[in-house]
Write a structure and sequence with these properties.
- Helices cover 74% and strands 0% of the residues.
- It has 19 helices and no strands.
- The radius of gyration is 23 Å and the shape is globular.
- It starts with a helix and ends in a 9-residue tail after the last helix.
């Protein structure tokens, strides 16, 4: 009996060792595929930068000014940027100097590529490629290697991100930081007893706030996800620690902005301008007004098939939850999507402001595909799912060429998207 048991145990260990080795090999192959994807996208997008039409008197020019000043004089230039921004009402419809995180990243980037609009475009491009890697890294923790590669492919071929990755704007960079914060918060909820996960999330979330103040709205779905984990999954999620990681980054940012602005009056003026200026901005009123459902409509205009599957994934996650089949990750991502659309739907509508939602939409779209194809159960199902992902990537690339290259889309608002789709008349040349 002992001999048989010993042989059985040895065989079991050998099988487990072989299985672990096979998993490590699959992950290495997955990373190789993603690196090849990143390289290909980098070459293709870099080749399209010469056709970018910059707006030096719009947001582009303000980001460039902030970049140049911090590159030359360090963070000591930030208080003067607050003074400059508050000096004339004409500045108030453009990016505020409170986006210190992006300004600092641009200034550091300028050490390698100089301070220019094209340099900021290169930062956007690098951010998109990094976002593909980050999306794959998180997906690899949540799913099989094959499924994680498909997540990376759908993120890499996001029509919205492909276009924004060429522009001298903050949107892809902040998407990278926000997606990282979403992934880290999900990881924190999976093991809240690990202090380093809470610290990592708090640091990244704080940087997201410093990069773009609108990131504070992510606290709404984060709180919902924490409530779901504590009372829906019965996880031991400490309320005090969770409140701390959500609140303390905001407090730290407010203190930093207070020091940069010089006094509370200036800080309050800037924050009030950020919140209220769209109500008097003619461009925002003409092209960004409307109901909350403009966001899903514009997402369908930008990338119809993947968005349709993603919205189906949101509905499927909630429907299964209602039936008692809770998928915590799917519901958490659905909550991120719903909460962001609901909150940001009260402000100016521009797909640039919700670029982070490409991540939950594409993860949930792939979940829908994975289920329909039975990819978890058979190799044939995985092959069919991968083929569908390739088709979606090809369609997204075609949409990118049509909207961003041929039509030269700059601001992805409803009017421009309708004209790019030839569903509305274009202005005379």
């Amino acid at each position: 009996m002992l001999g048989v048991a010993g042989r059985g145990r040895g065989a079991y260990n050998l099988d487990m060792s072989d299985e672990a080795a096979g998993e490590r090999g699959a992950r290495l192959v997955g990373w190789g595929a993603v690196v090849a994807l990143i390289a290909g996208l980098g070459v293709a997008l870099h080749g399209s930068l010469d056709s970018v039409q910059y707006q030096p008197h719009s947001d582009d020019g303000y980001y460039l000014r902030y970049m140049q000043e911090v590159a030359e004089r360090g963070l000591g230039a930030v208080p003067q940027q607050f003074t400059f921004y508050l000096s004339e009402p004409r500045h108030w419809i453009f990016p505020p100097p409170s986006r210190v995180g992006f300004t600092l990243a641009c200034a550091l980037w300028s050490e390698l590529f100089g301070a220019s609009l094209r340099s900021i475009s290169l930062l956007s491009l690098a951010s998109h490629l990094a976002l593909v890697a980050v999306s794959f890294a998180f997906a690899l923790r949540w799913f099989s290697t094959a499924r994680a590669v498909c997540v990376a492919a759908l993120m890499g071929f996001s029509t919205l991100h492909l276009g924004l990755a060429r522009l001298a704007l903050t949107d892809v960079f902040i998407s990278l930081v926000q997606v990282t914060s979403i992934g880290l918060f999900i990881e924190y909820l999976r093991a809240p007893q690990r202090v380093w996960r809470a610290v990592a999330f708090a640091l990244v979330f704080g940087f997201a706030l410093l990069t773009k103040e609108i990131s504070v709205l992510l606290a709404v779905p984060f709180a919902g996800c924490a409530a779901l984990a504590r009372w829906g999954e019965r996880r031991d999620v400490p309320i005090g620690r969770t409140l701390a990681v959500l609140v303390l980054p905001g407090v730290a940012c407010l203190l930093g902005w207070w020091l940069a602005a010089g006094d509370l009056t200036n800080l309050w003026r800037v924050m009030k301008i950020v919140l209220l200026s769209p109500a008097t901005n003619e461009y925002a009123l003409q092209f960004g007004s409307g109901a909350w459902f403009r966001y899903p409509i514009d997402e369908l205009l930008m990338s119809p098939w993947t968005t349709l599957l993603g919205l189906g994934g949101v509905a499927l996650a909630l429907w299964r939850w209602r039936r008692g089949e809770l998928d915590p990750l799917a519901v958490a991502l659905a909550l991120v999507y719903i909460a962001q659309v609901a909150v940001l739907g009260q402000f100016t509508k521009n797909l640039r402001y919700v670029a982070v939602l490409e991540f939950p939409l594409r993860v949930l779209a792939l979940g829908w595909i994975w289920d329909i194809c039975g990819a978890e159960r058979s190799a044939r199902g995985r092959a069919v799912a991968a083929a569908l992902v390739l088709v979606l990537c090809a369609l997204s690339w075609s949409d990118f060429q049509r909207l961003w290259i041929e039509f030269r889309l700059y601001d992805p608002v409803s009017g421009a998207l309708l004209m790019g789709r030839e569903m509305a008349p274009r202005p005379p040349q």
